[in-house]
Write a structure and sequence with these properties.
Structural class of chain A: mainly alpha
Order of helices and strands of chain B: HHHHHHH
Strand content of chain B: under 5%
Oligomer: heterodimer
Helix content of chain A: over 70%
Number of helices of chain B: 7
Structural class of chain B: mainly alpha
Largest interface: A-B, 68 and 81 residues
Largest sheet of chain A: none
Shape of chain A: elongated
Order of helices and strands of chain A: HHH
Radius of gyration of chain B: 20 Å
Distance between the termini of chain A: 55 Å
Number of strands of chain A: 0
Distance between the termini of chain B: 61 Å
Number of helices of chain A: 3
Chain lengths: 100, 162
């Protein structure tokens, strides 16, 4: 039987790897993928506690998280295509059209 | 035996997660992320939830990552691939992340948590569906409206303007 602590530790490590990716990388697509990694670590957490408590709510929330992540990726990649078409850059430091 | 499998999946998941962040080519990042998501699906099976594992593989690996790969292929990334990591502040960020990780892991391992899961708990498709359509009906409808809005928004935003 795997202790639930291990799952939570794994999810913390994956979350921190994703956070490091968001903070250090400058390519928009890689930043989006790092966000996906962080969302997945949250899913592991939900599932681990659902298993520990014998409660179905964690499973439902995992389904919601996956759905919202899919919606987020669709919109983000649409914005990205429009942005790259007009700006010709992938560097987030150069994307500052909304800056006042 | 189960611990052995967990350690195997966890090791591959962490290694491929690191590859996502460190790979210079976005295509390599996307492929590493696919490996990581499949490992997470395997962990869901270890947590006795085969339905969520199937959903994870269908939606994440089947839909989301294919979308990522398509966008990487549509957009010309050759110049972006050649760009190196920004030298500034990278070491600082990694240091902060390591400190935070050590802190979280210390908290996780110090906190006493029940180790024996509740018995007789079998999340089948039927029980998940029953809960989704009774207790969580309103959030379910909200999520479906969000999906519709995202669908329309993605098409409208990505469409070429004349």
């Amino acid at each position: 039987m795997v202790p639930v602590t291990w799952y939570i530790a794994l999810s913390a490590v994956l979350f921190m790897i994703g956070a490091a990716g968001v903070l250090t990388r400058r390519n928009v697509i890689v930043i989006l993928m790092s966000i996906e990694l962080m969302l997945n670590s949250v899913n592991i957490n939900f599932m681990a506690f659902s298993y520990l408590l014998g409660d179905m709510t964690g499973q439902i929330f995992t389904i919601f998280t996956i759905t919202v992540a899919a919606a987020e990726v669709a919109v983000a990649l649409g914005i990205l295509i429009a942005l790259v078409r007009s700006n010709k850059t992938f560097n987030v430091d150069e994307i500052d059209a909304l800056k006042g | 035996m189960e611990k052995l499998f967990f350690l195997m999946f966890a090791a591959v998941a962490i290694a491929s997660g690191l590859a996502v962040v460190t790979a210079r080519n976005p295509v390599h990042s996307a492929l590493a992320l696919i490996v990581c998501l499949i490992q997470v699906a395997a962990l869901f099976v270890l947590l006795r939830s085969p339905f969520l594992a199937a959903v994870q593989i269908f939606i994440y690996v089947g839909a989301v990552m294919v979308l990522f790969l398509f966008v990487v292929l549509i957009l010309d990334m050759r110049k972006a691939v050649l760009q190196a990591f920004p030298p500034v502040k990278k070491r600082f960020v990694v240091g902060v992340i390591l400190v935070l990780m050590a802190q979280i892991l210390a908290f996780v391992f110090v906190t006493p948590m029940g180790l024996s899961p509740a018995g007789g708990w079998e999340p089948t498709v039927e029980s998940i569906g029953r809960m989704l359509f009774t207790k969580y009906l309103f959030p379910f409808e909200v999520v479906s409206v969000i999906l519709l809005a995202a669908l329309v928004a993605a098409i409208v935003i990505a469409k070429e303007r004349r």
